[in-house]
Structures are given as structure tokens and as C-alpha cells.
């Protein structure tokens, strides 16, 4: 269970990765999403997907940049999507540092390194998505989390 009263892991497991269907979803209010991943392709893909739905996306290519960017943000993001393996500071350390500054930020871990699932959740991530997965499902789950936080 996350600190928002939602168990995204259970929701995504029960629904095959989907947390709701388009038919029962209201249009999303604009959200601020922060993507931390060392792969340009991934950052661009997430940016395109979220922005096509009217959301604002910020990104960082590694943990150092993510922590510094987060520190400078006047308006904090509604959610963070965090990779694990990055040059320098990894996703676990980055998650701990960001949550040390603001423990209310939901961090969704997205990594091909399933061995760090428990460590990511222990560090404070609200869910863990093992790559590869359908990106649309991650986008839907992220927006479900953002909507739940705003209730």
C-alpha cells in the first residue's frame, strides 16, 4: 500500500497492467510529470505520450541532474517516473534524496532490473514497473495515481 492509500502494484496485477479503461476515465486535468531516465528515446517517448494528453513533462538524464532539477523546481511535479540504472547516482539513491526533500511526491520506478524491486519500494517508490511494458499502461497508471492524489 502506498502512502496515498492506493496499492498500484495490486491494481496493475489484477488488471494486467491497466488501472482503468478509457470508457470509465474522465479527461485529465493538466499534470506535471518528471521523467528520470538516461535513455533519450525513453525520455522522448514519455514526453510525447504525456504531452499528447495535455500534460507538462520535465526530464533529467541521470540522478545528479534529477536531484538538482527537483531542488530548483518552484512547482513540484505531480509524479516522477524513475529509472534505476543511470550513470552516477542510480534510481534508488535518487529516489531517497528526492523523497528526503519532499516525501509526498509519488515515484513510480520503471526499470529492466527486477532485482531492485523490493529495494525501490523500500526506498519509497509507490510502484515498480519491469521493462518492457506497454507505455500506454504506465501513462494510464500514472494519471490514475495523480487523480487519486488530487482527491
3D structure, described in words:
The chain is of the alpha/beta class and 151 residues long. The protein has one domain (8-14, 30-150): Rossmann fold, CATH 3.40.50. Helices cover 42% and strands 15% of the residues. It is built from six helices and five strands; from the N terminus they run αβαβαβαβαβα. It has helices at 8-14, 40-51, 63-72, 91-101, 117-123, 135-150, and strands spanning 32-36, 56-60, 79-82, 107-111, 127-130. It has a five-stranded parallel beta sheet with strand order 2-1-3-4-5, with helices on both faces. Helix 4 (91-101) links the parallel strand 3 (79-82) and strand 4. The longest helix has 16 residues, at 135-150. The protein starts with 7 loop residues before the first helix and ends with a helix. The model is unreliable at 1-26 (pLDDT under 50).
* CATH fold-level label: Rossmann fold
Biggest β-sheet: count, sense, barrel?
5 strands, parallel
Silhouette: globular
Radius of gyration: 14 Å
Quickly count the domains.
1
Observed structural traits:
151 residues, five-stranded parallel sheet, 6 helices, Rossmann fold, disordered N terminus, globular, 5 strands, alpha/beta
What's the short version?
The protein is an alpha/beta fold and 151 residues long. 42% of the residues lie in helices and 15% in strands. 34% of the residues are buried.
Amino acid at each position: 500500500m502506498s502512502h496515498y492509500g492506493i496499492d498500484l502494484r495490486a491494481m496493475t496485477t489484477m488488471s494486467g497492467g491497466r488501472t482503468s479503461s478509457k470508457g470509465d476515465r474522465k479527461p485529465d486535468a493538466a499534470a506535471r510529470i518528471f521523467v528520470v531516465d538516461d535513455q533519450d528515446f525513453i525520455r522522448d517517448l514519455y514526453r510525447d505520450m504525456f504531452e499528447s494528453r495535455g500534460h507538462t513533462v520535465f526530464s533529467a538524464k541521470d540522478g545528479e541532474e534529477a536531484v538538482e532539477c527537483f531542488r530548483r523546481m518552484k512547482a513540484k511535479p505531480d509524479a516522477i517516473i524513475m529509472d534505476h540504472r543511470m550513470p552516477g547516482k542510480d534510481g534508488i539513491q535518487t529516489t531517497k534524496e528526492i523523497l528526503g526533500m519532499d516525501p509526498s511526491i509519488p515515484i513510480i520506478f520503471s526499470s529492466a532490473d527486477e532485482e531492485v524491486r523490493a529495494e525501490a519500494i523500500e526506498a519509497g517508490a509507490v510502484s515498480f514497473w519491469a521493462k518492457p511494458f506497454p507505455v500506454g499502461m504506465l501513462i494510464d497508471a500514472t494519471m490514475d495515481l495523480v487523480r487519486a492524489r488530487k482527491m
